[in-house]
Predict the 3D structure of the following.
Amino acid sequence: MTKIAFDGVPVAGTINFGLGQPSADLLPVSLLQTASDDFYSKAAGLELNYGELQGDERFRETLGSFLGRTYGVPAHANSLLVTSGNSQAMDFVCERFTHPGDTILVEEPSYFLAFQIFRDHGLNIVGIPTDADGMDIDALEETLTRTTAAMVYTIPSFHNPGGQTLSARRRDRLLELSRQHDFIIVADEVYQLLYADQLPPPALGCRTCEGKVLSLGSFSKILAPGLRLGWIQTSADLMAVLLDSGQLNSGGSFNHLASHVVRHAIDMGLQEAHIGFLRTAYQVRLEAMDAALGKHLSNIARWRKPGGGYFFWLELPEMADCAEMRKRAGDFEVGFQPGEYFSNEEKLKNCLRLSFAHYREDEIKTGVRRLADLIATELGS
Amino acid sequence: MTKIAFDGVPVAGTINFGLGQPSADLLPVSLLQTASDDFYSKAAGLELNYGELQGDERFRETLGSFLGRTYGVPAHANSLLVTSGNSQAMDFVCERFTHPGDTILVEEPSYFLAFQIFRDHGLNIVGIPTDADGMDIDALEETLTRTTAAMVYTIPSFHNPGGQTLSARRRDRLLELSRQHDFIIVADEVYQLLYADQLPPPALGCRTCEGKVLSLGSFSKILAPGLRLGWIQTSADLMAVLLDSGQLNSGGSFNHLASHVVRHAIDMGLQEAHIGFLRTAYQVRLEAMDAALGKHLSNIARWRKPGGGYFFWLELPEMADCAEMRKRAGDFEVGFQPGEYFSNEEKLKNCLRLSFAHYREDEIKTGVRRLADLIATELGS
């Protein structure tokens, strides 16, 4: 199995579209300072103690209302569990619901670092093809005739890395299959609120009564990754399994103090204002990347313009080897993630993922031009 | 296996010595507000982004110096991994180093909620007897002749629940056995700095070169549980195994933002001042509990006065059933943790654990009197 190095350290001068992270100007220092001050100026000592296993009830009520305003359907506090971000939540979900050797079905391509989490739990990963409407549900149904799956992992809106969104019709069918085949849908919905101009279909978190759904949400993409704060939205049955955890029973809430600060941020209206700010900023960057790709790469690459999220997925001619190309990208002061990282079958070698989240409009233009130079040099076109 | 309900919710009027948590007046709201303000007033946007897998390097340097001043031996930043508290650290360590069916050796009695974490990982738990000097190392050695252990879990200083401290001689032998039998020592050292008047022997965290040691430390007991911030101190070899984790690779540092705030608290001298304050406060409570036990229970109970930490361990006459007694404790407006919770073999029914951390001196006197009334009523003395 290819060992993938973490690509999180920016190199000065290089425009690394491999970084799926917000840029410094999008990270809300003063917002968090305000929310933090507001919390501490009213805080009682016991609020710094161990929290409820499921997470602070006031936070879960505030979060439930926030989801009502943003997802469109209010969530009951009882349906929400506080996590320390989606990576922790994925690991935790594997621990609570799987055994080594169980099968998990994932989109092909899918989020590369999720693979490592699933392998840490000894899971057998099977890929399901995707197209412009997300996971191919016919292929999923066919796979389920010969495979017993414990879980299906999906990124329904603004896919990482594909950028596409699972259609409403396919969401219905996925839920129907979950009931029929008794698997758990682990829906990674971190990009749900980062739409450019058109809302995606309702989050699977709004539909936890229609199948076995664990919807994973996070403040990493809408506030700050460093907070390590997220949530799982699910049914009472699955919640009971999550809560019966030694780690939770011993430590209390997964991230108690951060939940107080974010509760104040939401209650003060700061979180929703920040999402508005992010949507505008990301839309500008998305359009800039689409235009630059159109200008410099339309002759050689194919892509779909995403409706939101962080990512463009580029397909180069069959003979391209993007992992090889990546090794020489530094010479062109540009970076990206090779497509094969996102393949469970070490395919997709001619594809690559670009994130538009970490750079300003002008940097995106420059970076795409450099990428086009690299590709031209490598493919000799 | 007995299912143990979390006993974390205080009942008004009841003095519940079952609560192993600080009281409101010991939780540092203004300290954290000051440290938080100091961080945010100087923060750069990117400090809110994903952190280094091992944890922010500046924080690890600050923590290493702090350990030099408090443990007596400075720790290199490379030997430290940031965790989100000891419960998460224990779970993580099981995930990285064990397989279902592996054996873990624990002190009998030991921290009851650790059992649940180990069971969540399918581990086979075997108890090793303890006495006034901690784990009986002869018994450990004897067990190792017929059992292959993946890990030995120990609480070396101011044991939970026993209150005693592993002697220097036994620490040497434990490390020697770790080398001989190639098991990992998981040392839960959360009470190390909460000594009453005499320093315990050096933490096992200072001796990671002498055996396979994972020393677990936490800010829960010396600052605030709600922070969910701790650390693992270990050798380069074991660190490499910890870092090769999907969850870390995906999410970055386990608790990045909290580590910034605590870095400022340490650098401003606030953390060490707070430890001084806690040591004084807990010493008063410890003495109050010892005196009250002497006054009300010396005729029927036996205990060792602990040298620090949170806990007294009481032994009642053989026929006592403390779990049964606990059911009627509410009538006396008092609470405790029955001894059998801390036994891996459902023994120790005539023992109980009292925490002196959550109540003031006067409340401790009143609570112990109530406990004596309960015991007298139950045992008909």
In short: Chain A is about 40% helix and 15% strand. Residues 30-269 of chain A form a domain with the Aspartate Aminotransferase; domain 2 fold (CATH 3.40.640.10).
